[in-house]
Model the fold of this input.
Amino acid sequence: MDTNKDLYHFFLDKTWQLTEEWYANLDKSDPAGVYASTDPEAIKAVKQQNYAFHVKFSEVFNKEKSTFLADFENWILMVAQDEEHAQTPLHFIIREFHRTQNQYLDLITEFIETHNEQYSLNEFNSMFRLVTDTMSYVIEWFTEEYNRHAVKRLAAQQELILELSTPVIALSKEVALLPLVGEIDTARAKILHERTLTECSRLGVNRLLLDLSGVVFVDTMVAQQIFQLIDALRLIGVSTSLSGIRPEVAQTAIQLGLSFDNICINSSLAKSIKLAKI
Done:
């Protein structure tokens, strides 16, 4: 008797029933995430994902391990990168994996009971072990992919925030403004350098008003980056007017031996704009 084949067909026949039972007993009181949604389309989607999981997992009784995992990969990647699941705390998702595992273990017990004494204790234990070992592997795999996607998403969001924090604003055909606010760390300084050159070139301006009045602190590396930016702008034909330099920022620049020669410096942004004759 091919135990695994019988168990495979037994599981496969129960897949949609498993999904309905899972959703009926789902804790929907969690305030955030895919499980809390009352949107019919979202509910339909999460049920379909759960059903697809059962269909995929049933194949553990029907395929070699390498083939099973290769076929399972699409589901793992799809759900790990799903935006609805991305808004769901990871421990909620892992909880549902464990609930599903309990469904499977109950199903194996039901399978054994319906087949009376056809299976030995070793076979019974083997079925349980296959489910628990495979589920553990799937949970670890999913968690790894979920975290990898979360890191990529966070990096993209941080990059966007950095880009939005360095807005080059066209004031006229010849003049643009770059108001800097907040802390400038090394990462932001790098984005500042790249984006400012690109935007000034795109806008076709020949002067940039760089206002530092909103910058509280500039360390050695960042000060160097700002002066390197001014030099780079000069190479593409853009002159820079600095305004709002705080005493501590000026002191850092002097200590570094950075030269303010050939740089127009004004006490305020208003004065820079007035002198630009916009």
Notes: The chain has two domains: 3-160, 169-276.
